[in-house]
Amino acid sequence: MRTALAFAVSAALVAGTALGLAPAAQAAGTDASLRFVDIAGEGGTVLKANVVTPAGADGSARYPVIVLPTSWAMPQIEYLAQARKLADSGYVVVSYNSRGFWQSGGEIETAGPKDIADASLVIDWALANTPADPAKVGMAGVSYGAGISLLAAAHDKRIKAVAALSGWADLIDSIYSGRTQHLQAAALLGGAGYLTGRPGPELRQILNDFLSSNLDKEDEMIAWGRARSAATHLDALNANRPAIMLGNAWGDTIFPPNQFASFYEKLSGPKRLEFRPGDHATAEATGLLGLPNDTWTNAHRWFDHYLKGADNGVDREQPVQLKPRSDAGYEGYADWKSVNANQRKFALRDSEHLWANVDSGANGGVTMLSNLLDQFFQAPPVASIPLLPRAFAGVWQSERYATEQRVRGTARLHTTVTPTAESGTFVAYLYDVGPLGVGKLVTNAPYTFHDRTPGKAFAVDLDLFSTAYDVPAGHRLALVVDTVDPLYIEHNPTGAQLTFSSPTADPSYVSVPLRAE
Q: What start and end residues bound the annotated signal peptide (predicted)?
């Protein structure tokens, strides 16, 4: 049922995006020049592309060029509204359908070596067939396009600037964080791939092994994901030193923000990190329709400075820009460490004994829906904390706060777990609890273990997904743990139990990062 739902959601998402972008495609004909072309990718595979050049470009002048690989399952008109804006401000823009999707040839390689070779061949084509300046090459993309752009920049020194939006730097830490399969995310991507493209045999096998929890293939799956992660190629990126802008949403249920933040800290070249409310790709969505959009505005400023040399101040701003999940404006920080600098702990003193395999009612919501509601209506998933069944959910609460608590960054759970089976899964949730006991979800994260000795306790440190959330005065925070969440695949054998304790020698706690006053 879950897979069927993912297919249906994928179809609606793809169809809705295509229909929404069609008017933009029809309108693209007044100033900048638009043409649709075929580009030979790796092995001669045909990549369907479109090229937008500035008005009046006659070959007498060279322009910065930006290459845009499409998102997973999206058609080649995805970026047309932004391409026209870029062309109107003096860029050549080449957008192409990633191999294996829609009319482009080949099979889906999931940002494999052929995809990286395709990106360089598209740059070759642009330099040979448009008035593109070989010294001013940029790449950008949303989601899949972001991942390919980062990987291409590690392999092609010609790429001087990148805007990677709602993408991944670490594929394993994205959909296998906490050693837990992110079920809805993987099913959504797999379903969309089958609906709009041609998954290759390697991807089909990976999806099958991943969704069937084939632990015998775990090392192979991790190696496959690592090879497709920009974090693995960090040394090459730092040697090439492209200017990299990273943008993501706090509630991205496909590529959570933690992995982008960790990657950002390790980059040594010019860099910028932006987080906003929303879910996967929703922070950029209005910009794809040509509407005002902060993410795309800053991406344009990024390229203007690092490709055109414009003195627009983007290099002098605080490089970490965060928009809380509220009506508050942007906050600037010198680095990601500064976001997490002010930690406040609350103790988890009481032991909790849980029966596994039953959903307590606490959950992280639905991929592509729950955090979209939070983005526009500040309506995250909720649970009645007093009514959660204690046989299936552990609950610990902080004191009631006298002043507003501005949670910023990555909360961490430290606890001790004693299982009755060698494998198991639990999910930790942090809630903002009001006077009536209704909890609004602040953040969550899953954790899975294997090969543990039944009855033997072990310590767990779990980073919850990074966020920026304001807890009102008079509220408290609650940590809830249970063993079932529709977002994730759980590994609790039938009848399994988990005990969460706080030994005197190693007390359990939640460490919450708060914005300094």
A: 1-27
Number of domains forming the structure of the chain: 2
> Does 3 score more than 80 pLDDT?
no
Task: Give, in order, the Cα–Cα distances in Å from 114 to each of 44, 168, 395, 442.
Answer: 11, 18, 49, 40
Q: Are residues 289 and 353 in the same domain?
A: no
Q: Residue 163 is which amino acid?
A: A
Helix 2-27 / helix 183-196 crossing angle, nearest 10 deg: 50
Q: Let me know whether 160 and 93 are in one domain.
A: yes
Model-level pTM?
0.93
Q: Is residue 432 part of a domain?
A: yes
For residue 295, what pLDDT is reported? 97
pLDDT of residue 15: 37
d(CA 500, CA 458) in angstroms, rounded, equals: 10
User: If you average pLDDT over residues 282-303, what whole number do you get?
Assistant: 97
The mean pLDDT of 353-373, rounded to a whole number, is 96
Q: What local confidence, expressed as pLDDT, does residue 32 receive? A: 78
CA dist 427 and 381 (Å) reads: 15
Token pair listed for 448: 């899975």
**Measured CA distances, 14 to 203, 375, 474 (Å):** 20, 21, 43
Copy the structure tokens of residue 164: 């990677």
Reduce the DSSP state of residue 266 to 3 states and report it.
helix
Q: Percentage helix, strand, coil, to 5, in the chain?
A: 35, 30, 40
Q: Which residues on neighbouring strands pair with residue 427, listed in sequence order?
A: 446, 482
365 in the same domain as 312:
no
The average pLDDT across 141-155 equals 98
What Cα–Cα distance (Å) separates residue 277 from each residue in 185, 283, 286, 295, 468?
18, 7, 14, 12, 8
Three-class SS of residue 9? helix
Distance CA(76)–CA(78), nearest Å, equals 5
> Residue 349's domain spans which residues?
343-513
* Mean pLDDT for the stretch of residues 440-462: 98
Confidence band (pLDDT; 50, 70, 90) for 483? very high
Mean predicted confidence (pLDDT) in 150-159? 98
13 belongs to a structural domain: no
**Predicted local confidence at residue 186, as pLDDT:** 97
pLDDT of amino acid 27: 37
CATH label of the domain that carries residue 376: 2.60.120.260
What radius of gyration, in Å, describes the C-alpha atoms of the chain?
23
Q: How many CA atoms lie within 13 A of 46 on its CB side?
A: 8
Per the DSSP assignment, residues forming a β-bridge with 137 are: 65, 159
3-state secondary structure 53-96: ECCCCCCCCCEEEEEEECCCCCCCCCCHHHHHHHHHCCCEEEEE
SS3 507: coil
Q: Which residues of 421-432 are buried (b: 16+ CB within 10 A; e: fewer)?
A: bebbbbbbbbbb
Tens-place pLDDT, residues 50-69: 999 999 888 889 999 999 99
383-395 burial, b for 16+ CB within 10 Å, e for fewer? bebeebeeebbbb
